[in-house]
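Ticket #4471: structure output looks truncated?

Reporter: J.K.
Steps to reproduce: submitted the chain below (223 residues) through the standard prediction queue, then opened the result file.
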Amino acid sequence: MKWPAALDIVRERVKPLRDKHTKRREREEWWKFSRSVPALFAAVERSPRFIACPATAKRFYMIWCKGDWVPSNAVSVFALDDDFAFGVLSSHIHTQWATDQSTKLETRPRYTSQSFSSFPWPTGNRDAIADVARRLIARRSEICLAENIGLTKLYNQVDDGAWQDLKKLHVELDEAVAVAYGWPKSVAHDPDESNRRLLELNRAIAAGEVEYDPFGRRPLNGV
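Returned output as attached by the reporter:
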C-alpha cells in the first residue's frame, strides 16, 4: 500500500486471474508472489551482490546482480559474491559441464540444480581467477555501454569475430581455471577432456581419495 500506483497495476493485471485460481491462498493473497522462495532471498540478502545467469539460453553467461534485486523464475541465482566464484562459473569449463548436465527446452539448455551441484570446484589459485574475472567484466561492461548493446548481441558479435580482446580474456580465464585444477592449459580448450577430468574428480571426491573443501566452512548456495 506504500506504492498505490504499483498496486493498481497488480490489481488490474493480476487479480482477475487470481480470482479464478483453484488455490485459496492465491485468491485471497493475490498481490503476493505465487512462489516467494524465501530461502533464496535469505541466502542473498547477506551480501551486496550475487551472481545470476539465464535459466534457459543458448549460452550461460553470468552477471552481477545487486543484493536487493528480485530475480524472476527466468534466471538461475547463485548466492556467491566473490570474483573467484564469478570467474569459475563464467569459464567454459563450467558452462560446458553445466550444459551437458542440463535439461532442454526445445533446443536450448536449461540450467538446473543438477548443473550446479554436480560441478566439482577447483581448489588452486583463487587470486589468478579473480583477477581475470574482474578484468573481463570491466571490458565487457565497457563495450556494452559504449555500443549500447546487451550481452546476447555482444557475444553474437564475438562469435562473428568482433571484440577479440574480450575473447582473449575469456581464453585467459579458461586457462586460469584449468591451472587451478592442476591441469595443463590445453585442457581448457578441449570440452570432452575437461568433462572427463571433472567426472573423474567427482569420483575421487566421492571415494574420499582427495580432500575437497573449496569454500572452507562457508555454505555453498547454488540455484
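Triage note (M.O.): checked the attachment and the full C-alpha cell line is present. The longest strand covers residues 49-54.
Status: closed, working as intended.
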